[in-house]
Every structure is written in C-alpha cells, then in structure tokens.
Design goal:
Layout (H helix, E strand, L loop, with lengths): L16 H8 L1 H23 L4 H28 L8 H18 L8 H33 L3 H30 L16 H22 L18 H8 L3 H31 L4 H29 L1 H24 L9 H40 L4 H29 L13 H26 L6 H13 L1
Length: about 475
C-alpha cells in the first residue's frame, strides 16, 4: 500500500532553490565525516599512534560491514515510523550530537592507550559514528524522491548535494593541511604529528552538528506533505532485499555502484601515502589539490544536468566513468613509462593537478547520475510491488555498497603491509622498492574494478520515457 499524505487541501510549500540549498547542506556533515576518516584515519592510527596498517584497515572495513547490515533496519524503521514529525525527521535530529561527539573523540584517544586497547577505542568510536551517521544520512537521502519527482529536477537536487558535499570536504581538508596540521618551517607539525588533530576534530564536530540541524530544520515544513507509513508497510527486511534484487535496474546500479565504492575505499586509504611518499608533495600542494577538487566538482555539478538532458543518465555516467578513470591513471602511466617529470619539478604538480581536475569533473558527473538513477528506481519498484519504500531501497543500495567498500580500506592496509611500508616513515626516506611494490599492487586493482563496474552499468534500463511511464502508472493507481 502507498500511504497518502496528511496535508489535505493545503498548498504545499515550494521546494525552490533556497530549500534545495539548505537540504543539500546536510551532505556537508557526511562529507566532513567521510573525508576525514578516509583521508586521515589510516595515517593517524598507523603512523602517529603506531598501530599496524593491516589492523587499522581491517578495523575500518569491519565497521563498514556492521554499518551495512544496520542500514536495512534503519531504512525499514524510518519507512514505517509514524510520528507527528513524519517518518524521517526524528532520526535526523537524533543523529547530530552523537556523530559530532564521537568524531571529536576518535582523534583524541586517552593518553597511555596502545596495542589492542587503542584498537578497541578506535573501533568503539568508529562504530558509533557509523551508526548515528546512518540515522541522518539514510532518512535524509530517502526524502529526495518525495520532495522532487521530475526526472531532470532530481539531477539538479543531487548535483547541489554533491556540490555541498565537495565544498565541505574541501574546506575541512584545506583547514587540516594549512591550519590545524600545517607543516612548520623547521620540519615539525603536519599530518604525522598528533597535536594538530585536536583543533581539526573540534571544528569538524561543530560543522557536522550544525549542518545536520540546518538540513533537518529546512525540510521540517514539508512534513505534512510527505507520505506516512501505512499498516501494510511492515515487511521482513530480508524479504524486501530479495524483492528489490528482482529489479534489473536496481541490481545493475547497485552492482556498479558497489564497485565504485570499493575503488574509492582503496584510493582514499592509499592517497595520502602516495601523495606524501611516492609523489613527495608538500601539504601546501595537497591543499591546492583539495581546492582543485572543489572546482572540478563544481564543473561536474554544472555539466551533469546538461548531459543528462541531452543523452540520458546512464550514458552520461558511463562517459564520466571512463574519462575519470583516465584522468586518475594517466600520471601513474607516464611515471611507469619514464616520461613523467621528476619529484619536486613544478611540472609534476601541474600534471597531477590536471589529472585531479579531469578525474573529479568526471566522477562528479558519474556520482550525480548514479544517485539520480537510484531515485528513479523508487517509482519503478513501487509500480512492481505496490509499495513505496524509499528508505529501504536506499538502505538496500547502501548495504551492498558498504559491504563492497569495506574491502577498500582492508585492501589498502594489506597493500601497505605487503609493500612492507614502515611505521614512522619520513618523506623522502622510504625505500624505492617499497614504493614500487605499492604502485605495482595498486594500479592493476583499479583497472580491473573500473572495467567490471562499467560493464555492469551498461545494463541499467530506466530512461526518461520509462520513468515518465512509471509516474503515470502510480498516478493511475
């Protein structure tokens, strides 16, 4: 059963640009959390706190797997919750404080902890962050198909969320490199020193709590026009998982998206090691690359709606995927061929910046299209089952993506261990054979995953006409 709204004949508020922007601001909280954990958690607990990289990577992966299996339960719970604040908002409000507090704590372990006790502390903070972040991110994402129905308008909303997410990630990354953990002229400070993580964690926690509340409050006035759960909505969530797996569109986008998350996890786990030790970049250069990422993502935000109107979401996603992969791989290929500039040469930084720009323009387009494609599956699945389950559908997608992405940090940690990467490493002092092994293990994994993921995505089958037909079928029903 698809439950009706409770707003009666009142006119629904307009979901205009201000509402889209404030709703999109919620993605900043997730990007600050995600980029912080992806960029710095491995190097903090491995190089600063002294835990083995393989242990840290496996711990991060385990937390993602636990989080993945929590998602369907949270999705089903938010689909079926009946309150005066609707299905989603009670969970969104409840997430702000726990995520912010634990984000601060994970970067500030008590003095004296080491070995397994330190690992247990990291895991307790990480699991709590993952749990309560799901309480916000999943219900917030599930709001989008209800707030916006149009095929092209959804792409615009997703693009704004991606833009906000990118700005949040860039802002916190630049703050980390250039303010909180800035390298000192005498060689101190930097991401390999513990002191800077305190101010980084304070600012990050405040941004997380504030943006969660802004997004939740901005969408609160739409609650009377959102769907309420009906008594028939209580269904075993494992049964629903198998039900949505019968949907070809969902199955293909889930499979391709899961591999996107896997490769992102590997890349994020190793990126700071490769930047500092393989390319020997300064933290000032890393901050510039973070700004380049934001500019590239903004370009992708502008391009994505234009491309989807002209050629469709799947086609735009595939083009972005291929071009983005080439942007990421080209500097490595040139180095292996012996034609890339040497470390320290300004031309090398320009090459890396150009590759980063191309990579993130393209990946921004692909990410926006994938999110919009998942939203279109909502109506397709409702036509097939007679039940709208936005929260559960996004949760099922998240389940498989997180299970796949759990392999990212685990593989990154194992690659570092297999390369015998030393703890307490200093830039310019890591043995060349260690760095060569690191890259030799890293690149073939990327190529293989890219190839399989694009092949799966090609089978997605909801285009503009199919989406319009689904909307018409739901109106008739």
């Amino acid at each position: 059963m698809i439950a009706k709204t409770t707003a009666g004949a009142r006119e629904r508020p307009h979901f205009g640009w201000l509402s889209i922007g404030l709703y999109g601001a919620g993605s900043i909280s997730n990007s600050v959390k995600s980029s912080g954990l992806a960029t710095f958690l491995m190097i903090f607990y491995n190089q600063v706190m002294g835990l083995p990289a393989s242990l840290v990577g496996l711990g991060i992966g385990f937390a993602l797997v636990v989080d993945a299996f929590i998602d369907p339960a949270v999705g089903q719970l938010s689909d079926n919750t009946r309150t005066r604040w609707g299905r989603r908002h009670p969970f969104m409000y409840a997430a702000a404080a726990p995520v912010a507090i634990c984000f601060f704590l994970i970067w500030n372990p008590p003095s004296g902890l080491e070995g397994l006790r330190l690992f247990a502390y990291m895991m307790a903070c990480l699991l709590t962050i993952r749990l309560f972040d799901t309480f916000f991110e999943l219900p917030s994402s599930a709001l989008m198909p209800e707030l916006v129905e149009g095929y092209d308008r959804r792409t615009v909303v997703v693009a704004v969320r991606v833009l906000m997410s990118t700005l949040g990630s860039m802002g916190m990354t630049v703050f980390a490199y250039q303010v909180a953990m800035k390298e000192q002229p005498g060689g101190g400070g930097g991401v390999l020193a513990k002191d800077g993580y305190f101010s980084y964690s304070i600012v990050g926690a405040l941004v997380i709590a504030t943006t969660i509340l802004i997004s939740s409050i901005a969408t609160h006035r739409f609650i009377p026009w959102l769907r309420q759960a009906g008594p028939a909505a209580r269904t075993n969530h494992l049964k629903q998982i198998f039900e949505v797996l019968k949907n070809r569109a969902f199955l293909t986008i889930m499979g391709s998206g899961a591999l996107v998350y896997l490769v992102a996890g590997i890349t994020q786990g190793l990126a700071i090691y490769i930047s500092l030790f393989f390319w020997q970049l300064t933290q000032g250069q890393l901050a510039i690359l973070a700004a380049t990422t934001a500019a590239a993502s903004l370009t992708g935000v502008i391009l994505a709606p234009q491309l989807t109107r002209r050629i469709g979401k799947k086609e735009a996603a595939l083009i972005g995927y291929f071009v983005g992969a080439m942007g990421e791989l080209t500097p490595f290929i040139l180095r292996l061929l012996g034609v890339a500039p040497e470390n320290g040469d300004p031309a090398l930084f320009y090459l890396l910046a150009a590759g980063r720009f191309v990579n993130f323009v393209s990946w921004s387009v692909t990410g926006i299209c994938i999110s919009a494609m998942i939203a279109d599956v909502v109506e397709d699945n409702a036509v097939r089952t007679g039940r709208r389950s936005e929260g559960f559908l996004f949760a099922a997608d998240s389940l498989f993506k997180k299970i796949a992405s759990a392999g990212g940090p685990a593989l990154a940690g194992l690659v570092l261990s297999a390369a015998h990467f030393p703890i307490g490493a200093r830039k310019g002092e890591v043995a060349p054979e260690v760095l060569q092994t690191l890259i030799t293990l890293y690149l073939p994994m990327l190529v293989a995953i890219y190839t399989v993921s694009m092949s799966i995505m090609a089978f997605y089958n909801i285009d503009r006409h199919a989406h319009a037909a689904n909307l018409e079928a739901l109106k008739r029903a």
